[in-house]
Amino acid sequence: MVNGSILFLGLLLLFSIGGLSLAIQVIFLILLFLLSVLLSMNIFVFLRKIKFFIATIALVFLFSVPGEVLYFYGPLSITKEGLVLAGFNIVRLVNIFTIVFILMKVLPRDFITTSIIKACLFVTYFGVKKERLIARVFLTFEYLDFYRNAKFTFNSLGADIAKQINSDYSEKIKPNLPLVTFGTNDFFWSGSFAVAFLTIQFLLI
User: Where do transmembrane segments lie in this chain (predicted)?
Assistant: First the structure.
């Protein structure tokens, strides 16, 4: 029940935070930072892992969004609107990644994996095999664990990624292949999530 409530609130925040204003997202970022401290998570180590994503977003928005020019050098110019959008999307990206890694820190991995599989079971009605769905979700979390714990350098980046891609997880996946069923509690959580999500979206309009 506790794990379900945590996952419910985490996913609700994860899917809704993109529609919030920059000021509110900054407040959430501060709260997430304080929560990460309580959980003994070093958020600065985490930020270094996504520094390339942050740099890419900053460059794209700073130099490609038209608007009031704040600075220019030759053909390059930084606009006020680009600066605002860059800040907004960087804060949103950091919030999203932080929420995901906090959930992975707090909740048992098997619980998260099973919950996501249950949420995706509807795709089996469109011809997707349940075993393949379970395997793909499992591999997604293997990659998340790898990128969360790995220490990348430019010299070894290609080799590290190739090693992970070529790794064989078949023996780890097999114990997780028993069919996952959708119970009464799952219907309750799914319905509650849908109602809460739609309510938040309506309030944000």
Answer: 6-39, 51-73, 85-104, 111-128, 187-204
